[in-house]
Structures are given as C-alpha cells and as structure tokens.
Automatic annotation (TrEMBL), chain A:
Keyword tags: GTP-binding, Magnesium, Metal-binding, Nucleotide-binding
Residues that, per the record, bind Mg(2+): T44, T69
GO BP of this protein: Golgi to plasma membrane protein transport; intracellular protein transport; protein localization to Golgi apparatus
Protein name: ADP-ribosylation factor-like protein 3
Domain of life where this protein originates: Eukaryota
Keyword GTP-binding: yes
Binding site for GTP: G37, L38, D39, N40, A41, G42, K43, T44, G95, N151, K152, Q153, D154
UniProt GO MF annotations: GTP binding; GTPase activity; metal ion binding
GO cellular component: Golgi apparatus
Pfam families found in the cross-reference section: Arf (PF00025)
Gene3D superfamilies: P-loop containing nucleotide triphosphate hydrolases
UniProtKB/TrEMBL annotation, chain B:
Residues spanning the membrane: 21-47, 67-90, 97-117, 123-144
InterPro entries per UniProt: Integral_membrane_SYS1-rel (IPR019185)
Keywords: Golgi apparatus, Membrane, Protein transport, Transmembrane, Transmembrane helix, Transport
Domain of life: Eukaryota
Name of the protein in question: Integral membrane protein S linking to the trans Golgi network-domain-containing protein
Family: Belongs to the SYS1 family.
Subcellular location: Golgi apparatus membrane
Any single Gene Ontology cellular-component annotation: cytosol
Pfam families linked: SYS1 (PF09801)
GO process terms (BP): Golgi to endosome transport; Golgi to plasma membrane protein transport; protein localization to Golgi apparatus
Membrane topology: Multi-pass membrane protein
Length: 216, 179
C-alpha cells in the first residue's frame, strides 16, 4: 500500500509532459551515452563494434587491437530506420583508476550510462561492483537509465550472467525506481550489441521529459 | 490551488503506476480469500460442522480455546502459501514483497474488523497473522530473488520481452512502444 500511495502522490505532483511533435526537431535530437567500466572491460571494442554495425565503412574491431584508452573517444551514431531518427553520442572514457574521477564531469550531460564488465575477470568483480556503486550513488546519475553489460561472453571462462546479476542486484535493490538491466554481450563478435543499443534508445526516449536531448 | 509540479524520471512513474498496483492488490486479496474459503470449506466438511461466511471473514473462529480454533489457525497459516505464490507470480519484484505481503494482512484486519464489528480480541488470531506475514514475506522474497536471478539465454531476443521477473530491470521493456 505504501507504493500505491507513493504512486498516487507521484502522479498528482508530476508535471504533464509536452512531447515535441515536430519531426524536424526530433530528427536532430542527440542523446549522450556514457560508456563506463574498469580498464580492459571492452568499452573501446564495444564502441568500435557499434560503429561497424551502424556506420557504413567502419571496420570491425579485432582481438587485442585496442590500445588502452587515454583521454576519450566519441562517436555520433545516426540510427537507421526502423529505429527512431535520433543520434547517439557515445562517449568512451578511459577506465584506469586515475581517470575515473573524470567521469563525474560527464554525468549531468549524459542520458544513459552503460557499465561494461569483463565477465572473464573474476578477480576484479569486487572492484567492479565498488566502482558501479560509486557511479550509481552519484547525485547526477539519478533518474537516468543504467545498462550493465556482461561482456566477453564468447570466452569459455566468462562468468554466468546470473553471477553478474547477483553482484548487480545488490546495488539495484537499494535504488528506488530506476531503469536498469543486465545484458550478456560480446563486443568482439557483436552478439547482444544491437539489443543493447535498442534498449538504450527506448529508455532514453522514454525519459526525455526528465533529461531532454540536445537539439541541434 | 496551484501545486508545485515536478518532472520525474520515466522509470519512477512507470514502476509506480497506481492502477497497476491497485489491480495487483485486488488480485492478491481475491486469491487470498478464494483459496482460504476453499480450504476452510474443506476443513468444515472434514470436521463435520456447518460452514458459514464467519469462517473466512470473522476472527472469532480463530481462538485458542478449542481444537476447532487451532485447526482453523493452521488452515490460515497454510493459506499464506497462496500469498507466496500469488505475489511471486503477479508482483515478482523482491523490493515490493514486504509492502504487498503486509498489505494483504492489513486489509484482512480491516475486513475482519468490519465484518465482526470489533477489533480481533483473540490472541491466536494475531499470532496467526504474524506467522502468516512472516512466512509470506520470507518465502516470497526468496522466490522472487530466485526468479530475478534466472539465467538468460545468451544473444536471444527472448529477454527483450517483458517478463516482470527480471529483477534487475525495474521497468519491463515494452517493445510495442517503439515508434
Ligand atoms: N574475447 C573477447 N575479447 C574482448 C571482447 N571485448 C573486448 N575484448 C578484448 O579485451 C581487451 C580490452 O578491450 P578494450 O576495448 O581496450 O577495453 P577498454 O579498456 O574498456 O576500452 C582487448 O584485447 C579486446 O580485444 C569480447 O567481447 N570478447
Ligand atoms: Mg578503451
């Protein structure tokens, strides 16, 4: 009953949204997606994979081809039909410990966070959880969707998604209501990458009242 | 009166849809009374006593003074399994189990008080409610957790279909809302 009253209160006090109807305006909508995770999780490989799927002529990433990211990579991906005509600005920021305090500067302007986990790296799963916890607890990430990707599922020794979920659920439980999801992917082979992008698209668009896209 | 209105995350609004929560409460309460009535009816037949609506709705039959009272108490405890199953199937979210489980018992308290025209004065009735609430909360929490950690098929499309059981996803993804 507590949640019933909370829901009623929310409905009574939430501003009615005015959806932009004009397709010309919508066509230019840009949503920023932040790729986070420990170093070596596969963020750069994932960005390269997304580029190779959605951009013509972009080469597919190869095993071991990505040097550790220094600074940031950013790609603007126009979505092809039948996906909505929007742009995803995907930010890949270095995951080394020294770079992690840079992340916070990106939170306010991002519309979703993708947290990439190396499922084969059992030794660092605790560190991974601690870092995710910091991201989730940050004030500026409140109310934006978080997608957790259990990457490198093509490798034999990868953790089961359940094991990753077990780690993640402990954090998710503390959140009130939040878009979050765990998906198994392989950034190298591309399995699950399209599903991940589609999930993000649905979620950022649904949340556009709360965090409106950049229009240009 | 102008009330201050706020913009809230879509996820917060969707997961707190009052209509959905209300219909879940109604469904849970219906299941609670329906199965209890069947169980009590069966008990009445076995005991060879006449069944009346007092059995499910009044607190008076649940008294610690005679064997029939204890039997009814045990039936009510067994009926907590109804709530366990119903919450797991209809709600499925670990975080909401406590709220829904307590709501069932609270509504039962209201109904039985109205029906009997007095607050339950039998200690056994209160003990049964406590026991039933503890069973419901603990078992349903455990089951929902298991369900939330269910394995996912790798790479398949199946997991994009809303299941309500995927605990990590606070709001089921509805594909039909994509343009
Ligand atoms: N087998 C496998 N290797 C991967 C996958 N994704 C990334 N890698 C490898 O993991 C290493 C680190 O990837 P990188 O994208 O640089 O990680 P980043 O530090 O998060 O940007 C590279 O050698 C990648 O080839 C994957 O899905 N499967
Ligand atoms: Mg990198």
């Amino acid at each position: 009953m507590y949640h019933l009253f909370k829901g009623l209160y929310y409905y009574a006090t939430t501003k009615e949204g005015t959806l932009p109807v004009c397709p010309a305006v919508c066509a230019a909508a840009k949503y920023s997606i932040l790729l986070l995770g420990l170093d070596n999780a596969g963020k750069t490989t994932l960005l390269e994979k997304i580029k190779s799927i959605y951009l013509a002529h972009a080469p597919a990433p190869r095993q071991g081809a990505q040097p550790p990211t220094v600074g940031q990579n950013m790609s603007t991906i126009p979505l092809p039909a039948p996906l909505p005509p929007i742009y995803l600005k995907i930010w890949d920021i270095g995951g080394q410990e020294s770079l992690r305090n840079l992340w916070t500067q990106y939170y306010t302007s991002s519309h979703a966070i993708v947290f990439v986990v190396d499922s084969t790296d059992k030794a660092r799963i605790e560190e991974c959880r601690d870092v995710l916890e910091i991201v989730v607890d940050a004030e500026d990430t409140e109310g934006i969707p978080i997608l957790m990707l259990a990457n490198k599922q093509d490798r034999e020794e990868s953790l089961e998604v359940e094991e990753i979920k077990e780690v993640f659920n402990k954090i998710a439980e503390r959140l009130s209501a939040r878009d979050s999801r765990v998906l198994p992917i392989s950034a190298l082979t591309g399995t699950g990458v399209k599903e991940s992008v589609e999930w993000l698209v649905t979620r950022v668009m649904r949340n556009k009242e709360y965090r409106p896209p950049l229009m240009r | 009166m102008a009330r201050r209105r706020r913009i809230r995350p879509a996820s917060a609004l969707e997961s707190l849809s009052p209509l959905l929560i209300l219909s879940q409460i109604v469904a849970l309460q219906t299941a609670f009374y329906a199965v209890a009535t069947v169980l009590l009816l069966f008990t009445a037949v076995v005991l060879g006593v006449r069944f009346s609506l007092d059995w499910p709705f009044s607190w008076v039959p649940v008294n610690g003074e005679n064997a029939a009272g204890w039997t009814v108490a045990i039936v009510w405890l067994a009926n907590s399994m109804t709530s366990v199953v119903a919450i797991t199937l209809l709600v499925g979210r670990t975080k909401l189990v406590l709220d829904f489980a307590l709501t069932i018992h609270f509504i039962h308290l209201l109904i039985t008080t109205l029906y009997s025209r007095s607050l339950p004065a039998s200690w056994l009735w209160w003990a049964v409610q406590l026991g039933s609430a503890v069973i419901t909360v603990s078992l349903a929490t455990w089951l929902c957790q298991k369900r939330e950690l269910r394995p996912l098929a790798f790479g398949g499309r199946a997991r994009l279909i809303p299941t309500g059981g995927d605990g990590h996803e606070m709001v089921p993804l509805k594909r039909d809302q994509e343009p």
